[in-house]
């Protein structure tokens, strides 16, 4: 089975789809699931999401395992034989590997309760989990427990890290548009330049704790020498360990900006909002027990993970746990153009999911 799953991962890797445009990937997944005895197969869930249900017919919990469908708008430079065939797009976060692991459970009917395999769209933008939850079709799939894994470069290959409480940070992207008035470069005082406001903003954000605010894009004025700028745009990612911490950060930054506009007009819009992922103690305990049963190495990890994961949205409806599967201490980082999911993780990832399912439904 492992070789079949590796072949599936390589096929998915060659044909990546970015967030919100995962139709081809969803079709590949749904086609593979149709060859299994699913009691229910749902497509177009929250966009291009796919879910398969395997029902024991006996009373018991509904256990959901989730993988992500989407890739990234980054050109790949891994050099592997199965590299992306779509220019400017690649699976550089390992979602192809996560899908292959989940597909290893296809056809599994628990002794009691139900198994739901969810292949979720648009994780990279933070919109996918909320879209799935908002889809009326999801009501029939609602789980009692939900689990997901994410591979993690920097941890020993195959080792598992999990803990109750915060597992991944909350984050949001701010687009800050500053508008003033252009002027002749010889007479800048006759206009209103956004440069002083932008300079103060950059200095203020740099004074915040590391990773709290990351400047991702700056643009000001026209690419010319005779025009003093009249407008600017900044893209900033804000990050906190909890949803309430992110709310407080946004509140404080709005107040700071209001006091430092220098009479210019500002417009702030929010994008790519991710909830923090909070691991339920009971769900996390099942992951820990599965790791111990399988005698998998326990990885030391500094929780929460700085990158955001929209899996946290499911915690409003189920007992959730997100755990991390080591991709190797020297492995290229997530979102690095040289990254490729290690095939060696498929077997331990699948074993972890099977052991968790057995604990809850066996």
Automatic annotation (TrEMBL):
Keywords: Hydrolase. Residues 171-260 form the Peptidase M20 dimerisation domain. Transmembrane segments: none annotated. InterPro entries: Amidohydrolase, Bact_exopeptidase_dim_dom, Peptidase_M20, Peptidase_M20_dimer. This is Amidohydrolase.
């Amino acid at each position: 089975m492992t070789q079949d799953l590796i072949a599936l991962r390589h096929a998915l890797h060659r044909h990546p789809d970015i967030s919100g445009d995962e139709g081809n990937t969803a079709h590949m997944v749904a086609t593979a699931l149709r060859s299994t005895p699913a009691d229910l197969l749902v497509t177009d869930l929250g966009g291009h999401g796919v879910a398969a249900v395997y029902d024991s017919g006996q009373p018991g919990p509904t256990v959901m395992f989730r993988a992500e469908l989407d890739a990234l708008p980054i050109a790949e430079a891994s050099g592997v034989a199965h590299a992306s065939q779509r220019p400017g797009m690649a699976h550089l976060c390992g979602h192809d590997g996560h899908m292959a692991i989940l597909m290893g459970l296809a056809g599994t009917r628990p002794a009691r309760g139900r198994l739901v395999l969810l292949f979720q769209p648009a994780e990279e933008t933070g919109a996918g989990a909320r879209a799935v939850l908002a889809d009326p079709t999801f009501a029939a799939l609602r789980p009692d427990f939900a689990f997901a894994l994410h591979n993690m470069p920097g941890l020993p290959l195959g080792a598992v890290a999990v803990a109750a409480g915060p597992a991944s940070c909350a984050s949001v992207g701010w687009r800050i548009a500053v508008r003033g008035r252009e002027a002749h470069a010889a007479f800048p005082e006759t206009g209103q330049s956004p440069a002083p406001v932008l300079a103060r903003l950059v200095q203020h954000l740099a004074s915040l704790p590391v990773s709290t605010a990351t400047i991702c894009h700056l643009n000001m004025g026209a690419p010319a020498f005779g025009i003093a700028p009249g407008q600017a745009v900044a893209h900033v990612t804000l990050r906190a360990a909890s949803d309430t911490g992110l709310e407080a950060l946004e509140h404080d930054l709005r107040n700071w900006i209001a006091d430092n506009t220098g009479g210019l007009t500002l417009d702030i819009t929010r994008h790519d909002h991710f909830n923090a992922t909070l691991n339920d103690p009971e769900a996390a305990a099942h992951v820990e027990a599965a790791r111990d049963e399988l005698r998998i190495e326990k990885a030391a990890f500094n929780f929460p993970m700085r990158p955001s994961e929209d899996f946290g949205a499911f915690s409003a409806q189920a007992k959730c746990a997100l755990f991390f599967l080591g991709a190797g201490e020297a492995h290229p980082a997530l979102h690095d153009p040289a990254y490729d999911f290690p095939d060696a993780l498929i077997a331990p990832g699948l074993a972890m999911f099977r052991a968790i399912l057995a604990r809850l439904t066996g």
